[in-house]
Amino acid sequence: MAEKSFKYVILGGGVAAGYAAREFAKQGVQPGELAIISKEAVAPYERPALSKAYLFPEGAARLPGFHVCVGSGGERLLPEWYKEKGIQLILSTEIVKADLPAKTVVSAAGETFKYQILIIATGSTVIRLTDFGVEGADAKNIFYLREIDDADKLLEAIKAKKNGKAVIVGGGYIGLELAAVMKINNFDVTMVYPEPWCMPRLFTPDIAAFYEEYYANKGVKIIKGTVAVGFTSDSIGEVKEVKLKDGRALEADIVVVGVGGRPLTTLFKGQVEEEKGGIKTDAFFKTSVPNVYAVGDLATFPLKLYNELRRVEHVDHARKSAEQAVKAIKASEEGKSVDEYDYLPYFYSRSFDLSWQFYGDNVGDTVLFGDSNPKSQKAKFGSYWIKDGKVVGAFLEGGTAEENQAIAKVAKLQPSVQSLEAVKHEGLSFACKI
């Protein structure tokens, strides 16, 4: 097969790839210089839609509605946009080999692609129960959600199993968002997770208590402190029961598993320096290999605000790290420099009619403020994380755009506080006056 050559290759076709492409276009990339190689069959899209509006029974989101860069309020990059800019979208193409010293990548079909500069944007893959040899985990109607194909398969099952029983395995982002979506689709929903409360990597017990009771009021059953250890299926191989470690068995027509992800770094093992489960980069997303950059979920980068190396799995960082890498690439070509990446960690989620945002770091003492009664008409509450006498993190449920900007500012500026009691008393107004 003929070898194809490009000046720049972006490996992976997710959110980061789309935002990198837009930045290349802004910087004046020449037609034919840039290729995006993706195993997905569609142009880059805003992945968060898959666990939210894509699965709604009415007014559902569909492509081309959520191609990047609409998620951050930008222009939607349709497949034609890439053509107009002379950017080659090489879709439905899985790369199975990367030779960084030779500056080549090879597809499953045997095509070779040469590059001068590579941006690794392969993101994460979901952790599957079959990886742990869970009995019966290969039954039909056990779903994972990462790509649009996964969402399409889940949609088919939702239609086929109308008003059935759904079991959600996992109590993190995907678990909470999918439990809400399945309930909106009129399923009988049970969530199962091993931790003592939901979203344990971010939520305090107080914050989690609000969401758990809110979900319970919506009819979602929650089983904590145990795990799925096996599945039984019917005569046509469809899941019919989830066996729990505590001995219980739950009827299920659909199971959705959300137990975390793994950075997709396998292609680069032994070729590039790794740290904290990801590919180690500098503040410009350069790896230990010249002319190779890594962005998004799989980059372990210097988080300037906290003076430490960190890996961040979130769409906001995928967008911003991609833009930073491209700015750095173009600046170095012109003998210029760009500022180091100065990132404020940001996470958010939406489910039912709830919407929360978190900024900063969740370490230190916590102070809960506001109305966190799940029965309130419009609950609005938040939390500050205080370490060494400074606010280092802030969370807000039900905030306006201005209020969310205020908590972001607090997390960035890290103001000193006199006492936890004083901050608790001031609540949201403490952030709004900074």
UniProtKB/TrEMBL annotation:
Top enzyme category: oxidoreductase
Domain Monodehydroascorbate reductase 3-like C-terminal: 344-431
Reaction equations catalysed: 2 monodehydro-L-ascorbate radical + NADH + H(+) = 2 L-ascorbate + NAD(+)
GO cellular component terms given for this protein: cytoplasm
KW NADP (keyword) present: yes
Pfam families attached to this UniProt entry: MDHAR3-like_C (PF21791), Pyr_redox_2 (PF07992)
Cofactor: FAD
Limits of the FAD/NAD(P)-binding domain: 6-322
The protein's Enzyme Commission number: 1.6.5.4
The keyword NADP is assigned to this record: yes
Keywords tagged on the record: FAD, Flavoprotein, NAD, NADP, Oxidoreductase, Redox-active center
Molecular function GO terms recorded: monodehydroascorbate reductase (NADH) activity
Function statement: Catalyzes the conversion of monodehydroascorbate to ascorbate, oxidizing NADH in the process.
Family in the record: Belongs to the FAD-dependent oxidoreductase family.
Protein name: monodehydroascorbate reductase (NADH)
Organism: Gossypium hirsutum
